[in-house]
Each structure stands twice: as structure tokens, then as C-alpha cells.
Automatic annotation (TrEMBL):
Organism: Reichenbachiella carrageenanivorans
Keywords annotated in UniProt: DNA-binding, Repressor, Transcription, Transcription regulation
Record-given protein name: MerR family transcriptional regulator
InterPro entries for this protein: Cbl-bd_cap (IPR003759), Cobalamin-bd_sf (IPR036724), DNA-bd_dom_put_sf (IPR009061), MerR-type_HTH_dom (IPR000551), MerR_fam (IPR047057), Meth_synthase_dom (IPR036594)
Domain named HTH merR-type: residues: 8-61
Length: 299
């Protein structure tokens, strides 16, 4: 893949990342020359990182009663100044969208210094759980869509994922005593997307329970050995890959015989099957990353 392919975007990618409809972007081009798309030798329109960043900034400012006619006349420095001025007065849900836009531009530049600054600010402003459920996870979904379409490299997604893992490890409290209630957290042997499970582990580390994190790709026989040794009061897992339905069914059938409560966090790919899974197996299904921890009954 050429560098050019990596660093350019179609109008549909701009729409997906910014939330601004492609039709609206085209109107802005014609009426205000807000962004001027370049064209390939075969006359296909494309946009650059610079165009994307400008659209992201304008998308944030439009929510604060700015008019597009005003914004089209602003320089880059004036746009940045306006962004800083309005940010402190935003409600959290509005600010979350702005932070997503800001982190997209940071990740495109691999700017570690700015990432550390902004992510620390986000967590301090709210808390770890809200930072992930309202900003970091939605951000990964947007970046993942672009990576799947080969509009960015896998390095951008790895940059974010590795930084989020670092954050979660740093917010996981060391165990200073052993609690009676022990909880095993694991991913089945075909699963490796562990950020939501790491978040749950970090949050559990602040409660009066002993969370035992086995991590991704745990073979069933090894999980059973661990359960026999630890004798946990609860199991927590997560599934994202919906093309492993038969494997999941076999996995859960075996765990059903243990009579241990299981909380299973499922990705959107499993939402349609959630009710069926709950009926067939001894599990509590959670279909939202933010819904998992508050609904677990630790009594």
C-alpha cells in the first residue's frame, strides 16, 4: 500500500469520522470553499489529513452556535483558539465528541505527548470508566472502521490500543490483601480483544474482591484447571468475534455444569443472539461496555 493511500480519505470516510453528512460537506465545498478535494489521475475525489482535521474542528464548533459562514472565514489558529474557548463550558456528552475528534487527529500524527496530555485530562475530568465508555471505545470503533477500509495503517490502531492498555494497567490497584470473593476474568481461546475486560479488571481492583486476570485466548481445559484451584464466586468474560458461535456454545455448555455465575459482555455482532445465548446457558448477558460492572451482583 502506498503512503498516499494511507493518508487520504474519501468523503464517506470524512462523514464517518466527523459525523458531518457527505452531502453537507459537498455544499460547504461549493459555497464556502471550506475544503478543496484533490483528484486522482482517474478523477476520483480524495481528502487529506489536513482536510479531515479541519472538518473535525468545524464539527465540534458547529454544536456551539457558530455558523458555517463564520467558520469558513477563520484561519487555522482562529479555529484552534475558538475550540479552546468553548471547551470548558460544554456538557460532558458534547465534550466527549470533541475529545474523540481531538484524539483522532492526535493518533493520525502519532503524537505521544499530546495523547498523554489529553487522555490524562479526560480521566481527571470525569473518571476512568466514563473515559473509556464515552470516549476511548467509540474512538477505537471509528479508527477501526478506517483501518478495515485500508485508509489508515494498523499502526494507528495499535498506537491507540497500546496506550489504552498502558492506562488501564496504571489504574489497576495492586492487591494489598486477599478477599474471600474471588473473580476470574478471561477470554475464550479464540478471543484476543481484551480492552473491555481490562477495564472491568481495573474497576474491580478498587472493590473488596480479588480479581484474577487470565487474559486472552484461554483454552477451556486450562480455564477449568484454574477454576478448580481458585474456586471463584464468579466468572467474567467477553466475546467480540461472532463467527465462533459453535465454539462459544461448546465453551458455555461446559461452564454451565459448574453452577458458577457468569457475566458475559458481548459486542454488537452478538446483540441479535444475546437473548438466545442467555436462554441456552447459565450466563448474564451485557450488551454495553458501560453496563457490565454496575449490574454485577457481588453479594
Amino acid at each position: 500500500m502506498s503512503n498516499k493511500a494511507i493518508k487520504t480519505y474519501s468523503i464517506k470516510e470524512l462523514e464517518k469520522l466527523s459525523g458531518i453528512k457527505a452531502h453537507t460537506i459537498r455544499i460547504w465545498e461549493k459555497r464556502y470553499q471550506l475544503v478543496i478535494p484533490k483528484r486522482t489521475p482517474t478523477n476520483i475525489r480524495y481528502y487529506t489529513d489536513k482536510d479531515l482535521k479541519k472538518i473535525l474542528n468545524i464539527s465540534s464548533l458547529l454544536k456551539q452556535n457558530y455558523k458555517i459562514s463564520q467558520l469558513s472565514l477563520m484561519s487555522k489558529s482562529e479555529l484552534n483558539q475558538a475550540l479552546e474557548q468553548f471547551k470548558n463550558g460544554l456538557e460532558w456528552n458534547e465534550k466527549a465528541n470533541h475529545y474523540i475528534h481531538e484524539l483522532i487527529t492526535i493518533s493520525l500524527d502519532f503524537d505521544q505527548y499530546k495523547f498523554d496530555q489529553v487522555s490524562t485530562q479526560i480521566i481527571a475530568e470525569k473518571n476512568l470508566e466514563c473515559a473509556f465508555t464515552d470516549i476511548f471505545f467509540p474512538l477505537l470503533e471509528r479508527i477501526g472502521n478506517l483501518w478495515a477500509r485500508e485508509q489508515i495503517t494498523v499502526s494507528h490502531e495499535h498506537f491507540l490500543s497500546s496506550n489504552f492498555r498502558k492506562i488501564l494497567f496504571s489504574h489497576t490497584k495492586p492487591q494489598t490483601k486477599s478477599f474471600e470473593k474471588k473473580i476470574i476474568l478471561f477470554l475464550p481461546q479464540w478471543e484476543e480483544h481484551e480492552l473491555s475486560l481490562l477495564l472491568t479488571h481495573a474497576l474491580l481492583s478498587n472493590l473488596d474482591v480479588s480479581p484474577i486476570y487470565l487474559g486472552p485466548k484461554v483454552p477451556l481445559e486450562n480455564l477449568l484447571e484454574s477454576i478448580q484451584q481458585v474456586k471463584p464466586s464468579r466468572l467474567i468474560s467477553s466475546v467480540t468475534l461472532s463467527n465462533y458461535n459453535e465454539e462459544l456454545d461448546t465453551y458455555l455448555q461446559t461452564l454451565d455444569t459448574l453452577s458458577i455465575p457468569i457475566d458475559l459482555l458481548v459486542s454488537p455482532g452478538y446483540y441479535d443472539q444475546a437473548e438466545s445465548i442467555a436462554q441456552k446457558h447459565n450466563v448474564t448477558i451485557h450488551t454495553s461496555k458501560s453496563a457490565l460492572l454496575p449490574k454485577i451482583n457481588f453479594v
